[in-house]
Structure formats: structure tokens, C-alpha cells
Hints:
The structure is a single chain. This protein has helices at 2-26, 42-46, 77-83, 89-94; strands at 56-59, 62-65. The protein is mainly alpha-helical and 99 residues long. It starts with a helix and ends in a 5-residue tail after the last helix. 12% of the residues are buried.
Amino acid sequence: PVAIALAVGAAPLLYVLWPRIKALFRRRKAKEEMPSDGVWDMATLAKFDGDVNPICLGVCGKVVDVSSSENIRYNEGMYGKLWAGRDATYSLVTLSLKE
Length: 99
């Protein structure tokens, strides 16, 4: 009975703490610095998807850091999955949420 009670009690705790545990493992990856010269290419932009580095997206040839936005989060919701680390110009112009 005690083991069952511990297992049942630990399940919700693990459910709540799992995102933080995953974040700790992600932080072990090396962070990239944003280009000091301001010149971005698609490979560099792809590294800024919010996994380890800040979330950046490209719009009309400019790169915008949207890490402080509550609407765009790494791997959460539709916007973060679609636009983080990518050029979002076409999607924003056409108001499309297709990849």
C-alpha cells in the first residue's frame, strides 16, 4: 500500500516538473552568439529556435528577437512551432499557418 501511494503521489509531481527537467538537459548544449556583424543566413537563424538560444524569426529580411513575447514559445502552441528560427515573411503576409 505504501509503494502504491508513493507512486500515485509522485506521478503528478513528475508531470509538473518534467518541462523543467527537460529544460535542464537542453541548457547543456552550447549557446550560440548572435552575429556581431548583423548578417544572418538561414542556417544561423535556424539555431535561434528557442531550444537553447533565444527565439528569433525573420520578417522581410530583418531578424527579430521575440524571446520576450508570451505568444511565441519554443515547442508550445502553433506560432513557436511554425516560425521560431525561420523566415516568417510569407506566412505573415498571407496570414497562413501552414508550414
